[in-house]
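Action item from last meeting closed. Structure (362 res):
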């Protein structure tokens, strides 16, 4: 967990949007351990127990009044709330836009009118990746992927929100001073008790839907462990105050993929499944196995350098094993089918660039 030292930044009270989510909750835990007063703000109740030294407030970031009232005395907002990252949620355009863009606009307005001087935004590498080949990219060599070419609405709205946060940097605050902002652009997140990627993979494996493979074995992408991402957020807040791969198929007692399918065919199938989901949604729930953007993330190289985060934040990621997350899942999975999970070893069939990567801009 974060090694930043309490007292080195002039912050006593923070608010975390998306505080009931995987990242937001664990970020809150880390900040509490560092001695800060923490407000976890989310429209959903958390799956985990709220720490005794934290306050959970159920509210919607699209509701200015709700967020404004929750932000009294706050010195820094960590804006981690978002919607539509994967699966069928990627197809819910109205919800994605209202939360990712509308919610971000409200967060910025609250910072200005509450005179909250620091805002850290959890963005995504999707803002620069849309199926384009990127090898060892960095903040200087990669630019925003064109909005009109983005394959999914989540990436498009995250790009707009990313731009909004950076444009708000040095905005005058109502009570004097200026708002300092930065964005962190993490790739996929893994870690203990992760409830999105691994459960989805296992559910599809149980249905025998992962009997095929379609990636190029030379394809690389970055992943980041939860604890490293939490550390980066803490360091980003500290920096603002001071001054300014891999994807893995888990062999959880299921057979390995044995059919190889061209990526172009999988992409076309994803397009059809997305279309069917939208057409049939009023009548039946048909969740796509993969979306087009997920296919591109698996099939196309996109790796990044972290020199800027190392230099400006002091970011020094620790090494973790994806196998640890698998073991945690196996031991804690509340399902009758857990009896099938006899082999906690895993077969890695993608590659990842050594080191935890984080795109950082401010």
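Sequence:
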């Amino acid at each position: 967990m974060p090694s930043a030292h309490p007292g080195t930044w002039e912050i006593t009270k923070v608010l975390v949007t998306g505080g009931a989510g995987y990242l937001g909750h664990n970020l809150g835990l880390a900040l509490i351990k560092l001695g800060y007063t923490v407000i976890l703000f989310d429209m959903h109740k958390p799956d985990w127990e709220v720490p005794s030294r934290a306050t959970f407030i159920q509210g919607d970031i699209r509701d200015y009044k709700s967020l404004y009232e929750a932000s009294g005395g706050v010195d820094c907002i960590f804006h981690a709330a978002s919607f539509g990252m994967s699966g069928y949620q990627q197809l819910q355009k109205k919800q994605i836009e209202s939360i990712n863009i509308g919610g971000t606009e409200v967060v910025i307005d609250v910072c200005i009118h509450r005179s909250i001087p620091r805002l850290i935004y959890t963005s995504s590498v999707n803002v620069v990746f849309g199926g384009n080949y990127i090898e060892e990219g960095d903040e200087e060599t990669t630019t925003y992927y064109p909005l009109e070419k983005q394959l999914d609405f989540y990436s498009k709205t995250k790009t707009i929100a990313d731009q909004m946060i950076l444009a708000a940097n040095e905005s005058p605050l109502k009570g004097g001073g200026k708002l300092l902002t930065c964005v962190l652009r993490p790739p996929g997140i893994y870690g203990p008790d992760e409830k999105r990627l691994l459960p989805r993979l296992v559910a599809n494996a149980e249905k025998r839907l992962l009997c095929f493979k379609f990636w190029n074995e030379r394809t690389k992408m970055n992943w980041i462990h939860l604890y490293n991402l939490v550390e980066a957020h803490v360091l980003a807040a500290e920096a603002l105050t001071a001054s300014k791969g891999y994807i893995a198929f888990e062999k959880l007692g299921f057979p390995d993929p044995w059919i190889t399918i061209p990526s172009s065919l999988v992409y076309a199938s994803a397009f059809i499944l997305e279309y069917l989901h939208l057409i049939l949604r009023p009548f039946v729930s048909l969740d796509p196995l993969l979306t087009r953007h997920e296919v591109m993330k698996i099939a196309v190289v996109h790796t990044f350098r972290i020199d800027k985060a190392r230099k400006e934040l002091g970011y020094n990621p620790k090494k973790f094993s994806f196998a640890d997350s698998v073991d945690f899942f196996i031991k804690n999975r509340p399902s009758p089918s857990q009896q099938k999970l006899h082999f906690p070893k895993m077969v890695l069939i993608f590659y990842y660039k050594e080191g935890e990567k984080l795109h950082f801009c401010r």
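Note appended to the action item: The longest helix spans residues 93-113.
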